[in-house]
Design brief:
Strand content: 5-15%
Distance between the termini: 47 Å
Strand order of the largest sheet: 1-8-5-4-2-3
Bound molecules: zinc ion
Radius of gyration: 20 Å
Number of helices: 15
Helix content: 40-55%
Number of strands: 8
Amino acid sequence: MYNNYFMPTRIISGSGCIGAFAAELMPFGKTAMLVTGAASAKKNGSLDDITAALKKNGQNFFIYDKVKSNPTVPCVYDGGAAAKRGGADFIIAAGGGSPMDAAKVMALLACRDIPESELFSGNYGNRALPVIAVPTTAGTGSEVTQYAIITNDNAETKTIIATPLIFPKIAFLDEKYLTGLSHDTMINTVIDALSHAIEGMLSVRAGVVSDTLASSAAKIIISSCGDLEKGSLTKEQYAGLLYASTLAGMVISNTGTTVVHAMGYSLTYYKDISHGRANGLLLGRYIEYVRDKAPALCARVCAAAGLKDEKELKIKLASLLGKPEQLTDAEISHYSEKAAVTANVKNGIIPISQSGIETIFRDSMTQT
Ligand SMILES: [Zn+2]
């Protein structure tokens, strides 16, 4: 039995960490492109902290703030061109998964002319601009992964770009950027992190390191669920949840995700359900599926997550997420067909067929 775990991202955490560790940005060059959404990085203070650090270092910067939720192919090409035009030596992304994922692809496109038809080909050459990541939600884990998830209109889904070239060089974790998030965003993003931890333990690529990280991440999240639901998180809990989401990102960087994410992509693409919520709506029923096929595995994963059993997970998710959106039979069969052929499905320890996927969709999203 071998173990093989890889993580090249430096992780710096703590309130005010960007200012305290500004010198870490010096080796990356003279000019940075800062990638953000339209407003959140300005509101939560991350943009001010980054620009202050760059000014202190005497480094130049310019801002690309046009990334929207679920970034598109035109967006990443636009940002890649902006990085080239502005002579960016490196990119700093501040935000949730959307700005970080978009920035990673811009970092590739700034170094290589990739035709749109080959963007998802896996052929990315050997160079990307260095990316520094500043997560301002506690969910995606993108600050420590080699993945960028981009909306792929040709395939009508979200498609993963994966290459070690886009592992961020540094992740700065400062919990103060999270404190102004809306109640729903906080819940949805934390549930994404929980899904990463649990799916990571149910991946064929799970190993002793990823399982240890996943167990820590899930326990932190499970122990905060009550306060998360009430909206009464303390500063320490915000810091804990941000740390947990990074741990869960470290899990999936090595394990990948499974059928839950594959199913969730259609809910986001066609129904505009946020990524974390989409996973959360399906995760409770999926863990029951695992229980039915492999009860010992299910019990081990639940215990590692700090749960009594799979029922407790289902109850916690239902009370955080409220009433699920409803799917029609036609939608269920369309989304199941798409999910069944993804690499994520083959990545699960427990095999699942298209009809198994349909059952999970139906049981999760057709209740009255
Ligand atoms: Zn995810």
